[in-house]
Amino acid sequence: MSIAHGVRTLGVLGAGQMGLGIAFVSALRAKVPVLLHDRSEDQVKKGLALMDKLLAKDVAKGRITSDLAKDARDRVTVVNELKGLRDVDMVVEAVSESLPLKESIFASFAAELRPDAILASNTSSISITKIAAAAVPAGTSAASDAGKAGAGRVVGLHFFNPVPVMKLVELISALQTTPETLDRARAFAIACGKEVTTSKDVPGFVSNALLMPFINEAIMCLEKGTATRDDIDTTLKLGMNHPMGPLQLADFIGLDTCLAIQQTLYEGTRDSKYRPSVLLERMVDAQWYGRKNGKGFYEYTD
Ligand code: 3HC
Question: Which fold does the domain 207-292 belong to in CATH?
Answer without folding.
Answer: N-(1-d-carboxylethyl)-l-norvaline Dehydrogenase; domain 2 (1.10.1040)
